[in-house]
Amino acid sequence: MASEFPEVMKPIHFIKIILTETLHQEKLMMPIKFVKKYGESLPNTIYLKTPNGAKWELNLVKSDGKIWFEKGWKEFAKYHSLAHGYLLLFRYERTSNFQVHIFEKNALEINYPFQRVATKRVSNVQENKPTSGENCRVAQKRKANSSFELHHSDKKCKGKQVITTPIERAKSFKTCNPSFVLVMGASYVKSRFILTIPSKFGKTHFDLDKKRGDIYFQVLNGRVWPARYSIRMCSTRLKFELTSGWKEFAKDNNLKVGDACNFELISNTILTFNVHIFRQPASDNTNL
Q1: d(Cα 153, Cα 111) in Å, to the nearest integer?
Q2: Could you tell me if 86 and 104 are in contact, meaning their C-beta atoms sit under 8 angstroms apart?
Q3: Predicted TM-score (pTM) above 0.85
Q4: What is residue 124's predicted lDDT score, i.e. its pLDDT?
Q5: Which of 40, 41, 101, 171 has its CA 20 to 30 A from that of 193?
Q6: How far apart are CA 83 and CA 100, in angstroms?
């Protein structure tokens, strides 16, 4: 007699041990048995999700019955300081998403980058100190929703300030950590795609002994984009610029001239920013 209940599709797990050769190849091959059974259904682009909520986009390479995590794997491995002997537990749920847990050689799971930075704030950040990182995120979402409602409220209303521009909303957005706000100009999102970080912020939160390094941007859904930055003298002051990776972030998030971004530093050990985007109204957009 057939079962009255539909069959539950169980997630599939597999393990990969990181070897020195794997790190040098800058790609990771999936188990052959897994590929034979599920390889045909895998899309070319997948996402690795870690327990801290981060989401990394990777491209797969398929050849001769084998599949590798390739484009994006190098940045994932570097960000999490993968080393010889580390063990990765993958959970495939028959979608484009893989949950991944990372274990050190001592068999303990790593401490994933935390979503909060305990360091001094810069002048353009309002003091707002929720009791925990989780409460802070709730407060941020509430503030973002409030800003959206204000933007669409009646401008003739009395006794209530109406925040209408992306820069006003970005500056009024209370972050849990140090942050800075930038309005997107043509050179940021349309032509050169070179982003300059405010010098005061850079001198406070960057390691000035490193003239170039890795930097990461993520949005509220957890997806992460890797980039590179450089520090150089320009006239009489230090200039902090993104040299690669920003273009992909700007295009993937459809940033336009006039949009404003609030860059919140959530890790200064591994430079990582949450980017809160406040968009220019379609009718007022200057990116024509």
Answers
A1: 44
A2: yes
A3: no
A4: 36
A5: 171
A6: 16
Count other Cβ atoms within 10 Å, centred on residue 186. 12
Q: Which tokens sit at 2? A: 């057939």
Pairing of strands 196-197, 66-69: unpaired
Mean pLDDT across the chain, nearest whole number? 81
d(CA 68, CA 46) in angstroms, rounded, equals 11
Q: What is the mean pLDDT of residues 127-132?
A: 38
Q: What is residue 141's predicted lDDT score, i.e. its pLDDT?
A: 53
Judged by DSSP in three states, 95 sits in coil
The amino acid occupying position 258 is: G
Q: What is the dihedral of CA 152, 155, 158, 163, to 10 degrees?
A: 60
Ordered DSSP codes for 117-169: --SPPPTTS-----SSHHHHHHHHHHHHHHHHHHHTS-TT-SSS----SHHHH
